[in-house]
Amino acid sequence: MIKLWNYFRSGTSHRVRIALNLKGVEWQYQPLNLVERQHKERAYLDLNPQGLAPAIEIDGEILFQSPAIIEYLEERFPEPSLLPDDIISRAQVRAMAMLIGCDIHPLNNLRVLNAVKALTGQDTPPLDWIARWIEEGFSALETLLARDENRNPNICFGTTHGLVECYLIPQIYAANRFKVDMNPYPLIRQIDQACSKLPAFQNAHPDVQPDAPGQ
Questions:
Q1: Which domains can be identified in the chain, with CATH numbers?
Q2: Please, what are the averages of pLDDT over each run of 10 residues along the chain (215 residues)?
Q3: DSSP letter for each residue of 141-176
């Protein structure tokens, strides 16, 4: 059985849960409370020396860093694929995913927000900082979606949900959580609404995870 150490509200954890669900792979939830700093305890650091979420155990091996985990899942469980067939399209899809994974999410994750709060003397997350990077990235993604005349309007690329949605849907959750105005991004909102009706995304949603408040 695959075991995933993750936190219900972690965007990187959320994207791996979506990938596992889209693949139809059975997995076990292992909660890792980031607020209580369980990720910095020795037991977890022995698994993942970086001390970040998520980590996954599969076939007795421990993998970490969500992009590496998702790429592993794609190679290990090739069907259904998260990537298109041809090499150019795969590169385009990876670029869209990394637009989120490299240029939005890292600047708004917990440890960076804590550092920004410390530098600015604020007690709450700096919403203007959070919105800046989400808006910049979403504006670029919205343009890419508008240029693609061949895609299904409910999907980021092509005709099936895949890698981009794994990254996008958790980032939309974060944007809504931090009250970022989503009105300028109708194409992104349409994709989010379509995904919200699918079990793979519903079952990965932070609010239904075992460690979510009220569960």
A1: 2-80 (3.40.30.10), 87-201 (1.20.1050.10)
A2: 96 98 97 92 95 95 97 97 97 98 91 86 83 97 96 95 98 96 98 98 98 86
A3: HHHHHHH-TTS-TTSSSTTS--HHHHHHHHHHHHHH
